[in-house]
Amino acid sequence: MDNEFEDRQEETVSDIIPSNQQRKKQSFLWKVLAMRERNGRTMERGSNYSLDTLSDPSIENRGSEPSMSSTEAVQNLRVFAATWNVGGQCPTMNLDLSDFLQVRNDPDMYVLGFQEIVPLNAGNVLVLEDNEPAAKWLALINQSLNGPSDLAPNGLKQTASFGGPLFFQKPSLKKIKKTFKKLNGKRLKSCNCVLEMERKAAKDFCFRCQESNFNSDDSSTEEEDDNFPIPVSLATTQMKYSLVTCKQMVGIFVSVWMKRELVQYVGHLRICCTSRGIMGCLGNKGCISVSMSFYQTSFCFICSHLASGEKEGDELRRNLDVIEILKNTQFPRICKTPNSRMPDRILDHDRIIWFGDLNYRISLSHDDAKRLVEKRDWPSLFNKDQLKMEREAGRVFKGWKEGKIYFAPTYKYAFNSDTYYVEGVIKVSKHKRRTPAWCDRILWHGRGIHQLSYVRKEFKFSDHRPVCSTFNVEVEVMFRGQKKKVSTYNFQNIDDDLVSTRSSYYS
């Protein structure tokens, strides 16, 4: 068996590398095999090695079987997830998202979900969705993550409205996302697996650096806006984070960003929209799901806006939304590798994060809830949280996890105010009053996900407060034979101030 393996290695590399390098390769392979024999499987948590150091980018994703010369390590990926219902408000240029995005903590990946980026009126739901607000949010996110660029303020010129505030010049969402998705002047491919025939034809497959780009998975047929110039250099030299994908469904908008060094290892990018609105088929409610692979690990991100209402029994409608989303969400099969194991259902993924305005309310009378709000007794209020009770009863999100909540309810506030929208606090009619609730939530499913923080941010922009969470996510990285240093990128240590305080509640 040993001779067969040694002969195979000689046949593979003898024609493409000098003999002294060949011996180094084989020596490293023998060390890897010896390590696997002793330990079964190499598991490296918190290593100083980067993912680039441990892996060759030409290695195909989950669709193929590992060779005898491959081994596997586990690295931590820092993922920042956030959800914000912006109440149909269109952003202005002076809205700074840096604190919301916690840019000082330097995550490896951002997964951002918005709800109600447009008013949920008949025009947006039934006729044609307005994607101008989505373009503005995308530009603001890019400005916070990558710093000032030609897109702001030059690309998105300021124009004064009748009321005086500054607004963006109408941008093209398609053009903006196209530019932010470019990497080294090229666009990403949905599947970056190498076909079986190509692998057999390439003798140097294990040791060459393959270009990994991917096409837009959600391209539309709208025409390009030639009057909105965007410098191509933005996508290559000035961007610390690249846009992996973004998608809008009426008021729901999701975007995924990743550090430029890591984007090349993303593959199998797919998006599925599930409508759960009017008559169970319109997009004013529902979700956008993103499926992708990062090295050998599959990810799924679900941004949802579930059924509203605080009447008794409305929580069952929200439960049904979750059940139908899990049942009906199916990602297209795009992998070019035969017998690919890339999942097409949400729960089949390795790492899953679900976030959004889940709309679960408080099962208390208005007067009882009002009394607890006035006392700021958040623990007693949370004991009557519908999502908590439905999960404990096993009626929804069975097997999912949510971090401890140590922050005040995120809904419903008066606009531009710290005051809850309840009768007696703000002058509202009995019909319009709302009981404060934790509508905005982040949950996860799967092994290898460790939550570091779960907080809300104090933005008065809408009637909801945004909710953010930071995770350490384990990623399986397979490498073969050669320990090739592609870059000097390393995952950084988690800052101490990331961990949320557990000593007190705040509003």
Automatic annotation (TrEMBL):
Biased composition (Polar residues): 45-58
One Pfam family matching this protein: Exo_endo_phos2
GO molecular function: inositol-polyphosphate 5-phosphatase activity; phosphatidylinositol-3,4,5-trisphosphate 5-phosphatase activity; phosphatidylinositol-4,5-bisphosphate 5-phosphatase activity
Keyword Nucleotidyltransferase among UniProt keywords: no
One of the GO biological process terms: phosphatidylinositol dephosphorylation
Keyword vocabulary terms for this entry: Hydrolase
Cited InterPro entries: Endo/exonu/phosph_ase_sf (IPR036691), IP5P_plant (IPR045849), IPPc (IPR000300)
Keyword Hydrolase applies: yes
Biased composition (Acidic residues): 1-13
Superkingdom per UniProt: Eukaryota
SMART domains: IPPc (SM00128)
Residue intervals of the Inositol polyphosphate-related phosphatase domain: 75-479
Residue span of region Disordered: 1-24, 44-70
Record-stated family: Belongs to the inositol polyphosphate 5-phosphatase family.
Name under which the protein is recorded: Inositol polyphosphate-related phosphatase domain-containing protein
